[in-house]
Prior knowledge:
GH22331, globular, alpha/beta, 3 strands, single chain
Amino acid sequence: MGTFEVDGSGCAKLESGVRGLGTDVAIEALHFAVQHDLLLKISCKFVRYYINEYEPRYLKYVLY
């Protein structure tokens, strides 16, 4: 099993009032990793928060 590093959604500067863009990027990254049987290495605080608060089902894929 490989790893997939999520180091940021890259949306902080892009959002400027467009709410939810970072969440959409995070969700797609999580789906991609799981579909490709990869463990998640998350260094992005937003994505880590999102998983803990809204998608705890992904916790079993996270490397700490």
